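Lab notes, practical 5.
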Amino acid sequence: MRHILQAFTMYIGTDDYGYDTEEVELPLPSAVEQEYRGGGMDLGVNQSMAALEPLECTIKMAGHSPDLMKLIARGPGKKTRFTFRASVLEEANGQYVPHVAVVEGEANKGTRDRWQRGEKSGIEIPISGIMYFRYEANDEVIHELQAWPPRRIVGGVDELSIINQNLGY
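Output from the prediction step:
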């Protein structure tokens, strides 16, 4: 069954920036892998470790909002929470369902489009240092990840529960 994005918007706090947001590249979690080749193994095996690769999100804006540019290059540890809301069509049944992504990280750099008379230009802002990420589809939590204290919920399953319990969390 296809799930087709129909529209989306972006919020920073309670402010809606959907009118200026052209595209967003949301993170997709991936496990840290380590190659293992024991004894007489000819075929190496990439094994998932109990860790995830760092997440990054990129936002492409169609304008030059001073409010957004003020988020870039702030001091260490100054996170911003971005909320992305989408309407997705479930093609099999014709229903529109909400998808929500929450990203908390730092806008430490950015790039600007060239300015040309009569041409649209904007800015692109990568969000790094992501400490919290949650993705929901139709009110079901698909991923909820947090750097500290460690949290990894995938499809409703707490993947770190035993590890955290063993560490006293």
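Observations recorded by the TA: The chain has a mean pLDDT of 93. The chain is about 5% helix and 55% strand.
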